[in-house]
Design goal:
Elements: E1 2-8, H1 11-24, E2 29-33, E3 40-48, H2 51-62, E4 69-81, E5 84-93, H3 95-109, E6 122-131, H4 134-140, E7 149-152, E8 154-161, E9 168-176
Antiparallel strand pairs: 1-3, 1-8, 2-6, 4-5, 4-7, 5-6, 8-9
Length: 178
C-alpha cells in the first residue's frame, strides 16, 4: 500500500488555506488545487510498503520522542522555481522545528527507505498544469499571509489510495508528541 507520514492541519488552518486558494485562482494558469480535506504537511513519502515492513515502520515510529511545538504560516512559494512553476505552497516557520521532526523520522527509517530529496517545510496548495501569463500569475501569488499559529502535537502514518477523483487518505497510526 502507498504510505506517507504527515502532519494533519487544524480545521481553521485548512479553512484559511482554502480561502487563499480561491485568491490564487486565475485565468492566467491552470491549477489542480489540493482539496481542503486533504491539506497536510508531508514529512516523508514512503511509497509502496508491504505489510511486514509496515509493522516495522509502526514499531519504530512509536519509539520516536519529540516535543510538541508551534509553527506559523509564512509565505507563498513555488517549486521548482519561478521560471518553471509546478507547485504552489505555503511555508512554515520556524521551519527548523518541522525539519528536525522530519529528520528524526528519517533517521528511524533510514535503513528501510532510501532518501531521495531534500526536505522543505511546506504545505502544498496546488499543482500547476499550465501558466499562460507568468508575470500576471506571479503577481497574483504576492499575497499577504496572516500570521496564523498552530501547534504540532502529533504526526500520522497515512495510507493513500489513488482514485479517479484524486487520492483518498486513511490514517493507519497516530503518534503523539510530548
Amino acid at each position: 500500500m502507498r504510505c506517507f507520514i504527515a502532519i494533519e492541519l487544524p480545521r481553521e488552518i485548512k479553512d484559511y488555506l482554502f480561502d487563499l486558494q480561491s485568491k490564487i485562482r486565475s485565468r492566467d494558469a491552470k491549477i489542480n488545487f489540493v482539496a481542503k480535506s486533504r491539506l497536510h504537511c508531508t514529512l516523508n513519502f514512503l511509497g509502496n510498503v508491504d505489510d511486514n515492513l509496515l509493522k516495522d515502520v509502526k514499531e519504530r515510529l512509536s519509539k520516536l520522542k519529540f516535543k510538541k511545538f508551534k509553527v506559523n504560516l509564512e509565505n507563498v512559494g513555488v517549486f521548482p522555481n519561478e521560471d518553471s512553476i509546478r507547485v504552489i505552497w505555503i511555508g512554515l516557520k520556524p521551519a527548523n522545528k518541522v525539519i528536525e521532526l522530519q529528520q528524526k523520522i528519517d533517521g528511524e527509517l533510514l535503513d528501510l527507505f532510501k532518501k531521495d530529496q531534500e526536505f522543505n517545510a511546506h504545505l502544498t496548495l496546488g499543482r500547476v498544469k499550465v501558466v499562460r501569463d507568468k508575470k500576471k500569475f506571479l503577481e497574483k501569488l504576492k499575497l499577504e499571509i496572516e500570521n496564523k499559529e498552530f501547534e504540532i502535537n502529533e504526526f500520522k502514518l497515512m495510507k493513500s489510495v489513488l482514485s479517479k477523483d484524486g487520492p483518498k487518505y486513511f490514517e493507519i497510526e497516530k503518534y503523539t508528541l510530548n
